[in-house]
Structures are given as C-alpha cells and as structure tokens.
Amino acid sequence: MNEEYGQEPDVPLQPVARVSVVYNLKKQAGSDEPDDKYEEYDPIATVESVAEAVASFGFSVSLCEQDDAFASRLAAQNPQFVANIAEGRGEARGREAQVPCFLESAGIPYWGSDAVSMAVALDKLLTSRTLLCDEIPVPPCACFKQEKDLAELPALFAERSRFVVKPRYEGSSKGIFSDSVAHTPAEAQEKIRRIWGRYAQPALLEEYLPGEEITVGVVGNGSPSVVGMMRIVPVVQREEFLYSLEEKRDYLNRIRYEGPESIPASIRDQLGRFALKAFQSLELRDMARVDFRLDSDGTPRIIDINPLPGLSPEYSDLPILHRLSGGEYTDLVRSILRSAFSRNGLAFPARGSR
User: Fold this and answer.
1) pLDDT tens, 127-155?
2) Which residues 6+ apart lie within 8 Å of 12 measured at CB?
3) The last residue of a domain, from among 207, 242, 259
4) What is the pLDDT of residue 210?
5) Residues 248 and 182 both lie in one domain
6) Which regions of the chain does DSSP assign to beta strands (E)?
7) CA–CA separation, 100 vs 43, rounded Å?
8) 260-307 pLDDT, tens digit each
9) Pairwise CA distance, residues 123 & 121, whole Å
10) Could you tell me if 161 and 217 lie in one domain?
11) Could you give the CA distance from residue 196 to residue 181 in angstroms, rounded to a whole number?
12) What is the CATH number of the domain that holds 39?
C-alpha cells in the first residue's frame, strides 16, 4: 500500500472481495452530558446506506462499530478494505485519527484522509493557520484557553464588531448555536465560558462574516475535483444567520438548499479554486467538504473543512450538494471508492453493480 499523498502505486492491482464499514453509532446523551454529545455519530440507517451502496459494486460488506470490541470484531471480519465513517471515541482533538491510526498499524487500506490530516482538520485553529500559510482566505480568529486570555477581548472588539464563538475542535455544528454571535466583550466572555464548561476545550473567536454560506464537495487525490456546491439559505431571512445546531436538526423546516446555478459564475470559480487548494494544502485524500462564508466584500472565506463528511443520503450536506448537481448517491460512493482503490493499488470491479 502506498500512503504517499496523491501518489498512485506502479504495481499490479490487487483484487478486493471483503469490505468492512467502520462507524460510531449515535446514542442518547446522558443526563449529565451535553445533548449534542454524540451529534457527530451516525444512526444505523446511515451506516446501512453506506454498506448497501458499497455492496452494490459486488463486495461482501460487514459492519464494524468502533467500540470496546472493535479490534477483535475487525480481526474476525478480516477485511481487505475499510470504508471508514467513524468519528472516534472520547473528546480529544485527535479522535478522528483513531481509526486511521489503527488501520495503518494493521496494514489495512481504507478510504479517506490519513491520521495526520484528520487531526489537523478537526482543529479549527491549526486548519486556519495552515490555510493562511498557503494564502487561502479564512476569517480572522483568536483562541481562548484560560482566564488570562479574556483580557484580549476589548482589543479584538476594537477592530471588529462581531465574532462567532465556537469550540476549537468539534464538527456537525456542535457548540454553534443560534446565539453564538457575540457583539461585545461581555457577550463573548459569557459564550467562551459556555464552551469551556460544556466541551472542556478551548474556544475560538472567529469574525462573523455577513455573506452567504456555501459548501463545496471535493473528491479525488493527486488531481481532485469539485463534485458539487450549494448555498445554505434560511427559510426565514434574518440579519444574522448561522448554520447552527438548531438549524441542522430542523433543516426540513428552517433551511433551503440551492444548487450551483444559484451562485454567480465568478463566485463559483473562486469557491472551486479555494476548495481544491485547501484540499491539497491539508493533504486530504479521497473526499472532503469545504464550508465557506462570503465576507463583506463578497470574497469566499473558509470557515471549516471536513475530511470525514457525513454520508447520509437524506440529510448530509455532501450527498445533498452532489444530488443538486445531478449526481446520485451510489455514484458519489463509487467515486470515493475508486479514488481510494487507485491510491492503494487495488482493483475496482469492472462491472458497475450486481
């Protein structure tokens, strides 16, 4: 297996018959836990949708939850390839790297980015710094780890009027609520303390960008491609809109998704270029979703990158934006699989499906 970013091995292709789908199953948060504790985890319906799509290409597919019995269960399944959708266990910022690390140590090829890229992308501060080094536009931000950091707030608000307060390393809009925009140092301090208490991690202040929110899907490796993009529009217009936890949970009533035809051509071009450049800057593999907001000048700035995007055919952004560009769910899964198989020197079945 060749793990070099963007490289395809020059060796005979190996056949694959057995694939395991590795996942974390969503469960109910305990009474002493935040209600979004397991927001990133997948319901069984999503796991089964991924498994069914993978099986349609002729593979024998097994399901393998990342739990206490994960290692023994995966050994019993003896997969030749893993479709990894596991977010990782616990609360550490490297949790999305857990399964990639395990698979790499066991020599099992898998789809998706490696452990290093997964860990960096989950940490919004490290992601911002990495993108800035490659001159990719991101919002100005500041990190707050402890009490003494709060003294920086007046100077920040002297430069900018509004900030979004969010956890430093979470996904699926965890910690981003409809009231997460701070207009004063006092408001920011209150919301920073909420992050500290609720998630036991640093809080990030990121300039609130007043423009539209747009997300872009990328698939591939050495020459990745954009597989779609969409505007995320509130059904009820408001002065300050965040694609928050509340909005995502009630997306059918509160959000309207609009395809690439709704985005001006000049903006589409910038979005595509920045998304691909960011994908390569972080050395991602096979798939990712890149989230943007437009600033006051109309320039797209990256507010988040997810190398482990949700794959629910019903409500996840990547399948939705792909569908709005005319694609089908199985085509998306096929593209991700083909990318990973090519990178790992594996033979993809010549027949399209069973």
Assistant:
1) 999 999 999 999 999 999 999 999 999 99
2) 345
3) 207
4) 96
5) no
6) 14-15, 18-23, 60-65, 81-84, 141-144, 163-167, 181-182, 203-207, 213-220, 225-234, 255-258, 286-294, 300-306, 346-347
7) 21
8) 999 999 999 999 999 999 999 999 999 999 999 999 999 999 999 999
9) 5
10) no
11) 16
12) 3.40.50.20
Is the same domain home to 42 and 21?
yes
Whether the Cβ atoms of residue 286 and residue 343 lie closer than 8 Å to each other: yes
Residue 289 belongs to what domain range?
A: 210-335
CA 28 to chain centre: 22
For tokens 């996840």, what's the residue?
A: 316
Written as six digits, the tokens of 253 are 């009533």
What residue type is 44 in one-letter code? Answer: I
Domains: count for the chain: 3
Q: Decide if 239 is inside a domain.
A: yes
Residue 241 inside a domain? The answer is yes
Task: Classify residue 298 by its DSSP letter.
Answer: S
CA dist., res. 14 & res. 321, Å (int): 33
Question: Domain holding 146: CATH number?
Answer: 3.30.1490.20
What is the CATH number for 331?
Answer: 3.30.470.20
State the CB neighbour count (10 A cutoff) for residue 223.
Answer: 8
Strand-pair category, 181-182 with 225-234: unpaired
Q: What angle do CA 286, 292, 295 make, to 5 degrees?
A: 155
Dihedral angle over CA of 100, 105, 106, 112, nearest 10: 20
Alpha carbons 120 and 118: distance in angstroms, whole number? 6
Quote the CA–CA distance of 272 and 136 in Å, as a whole number. 12
Q: Around Cβ 74, how many Cβ atoms within 10 Å?
A: 22
Give the end of a domain, one of 173, 207, 241.
207
Going by C-alpha positions, the residue among 299, 213, 305 that lies closest to residue 258 is 213
Q: And the tokens for 244?
A: 């928050």
Hey, what amino acid is at 2?
A: N
Together in a domain, 225 and 276: yes
- β-pair partners for 144: 203
> 96 near 88, Cβ under 8 Å?
yes
Q: Which residue has the tokens 């974390």?
A: 24
Same-domain status, 41 and 155: no
Query: Are 168 and 181 in a shared domain?
Result: yes
- The per-residue pLDDT for range 101-129, each reduced to its tens digit, is 999 999 999 999 999 999 999 999 999 99
